[in-house]
Amino acid sequence: MHPRLFANYWNCQKAAFIISSTLVALHLLMKKTVAIVFGGYSSEWVISELSASVVFKHLDRSKYEPFLVKIAREDWVVQLNAGATVAVDRNDFSFSHEGKKRTFDVVFNAIHGTPGEDGKLQGYWDMLKIPYTSPGVLASSLTFSKSYCNGFLRQFGDVNIAASVMLRKGDKVNAMAILDKVGLPCFVKPNNLGSSFGITKLKDASKFDEALAMALENDTEAVIEQFIKGDEIASGVYQHNGKVVALPLTEIVSKNEYFDYQAKYEGASEEITPARIPDSVRDLIQETTRRIFTRLKLKGMSRIDYIVQEGVPYLIEVNTIPGLSEASLLPQQVVYSGKSLQEFFGMLVDSASCD
Question: Is residue 252 within 8 Å of residue 235, measured between CB atoms?
Answer without folding.
Answer: no
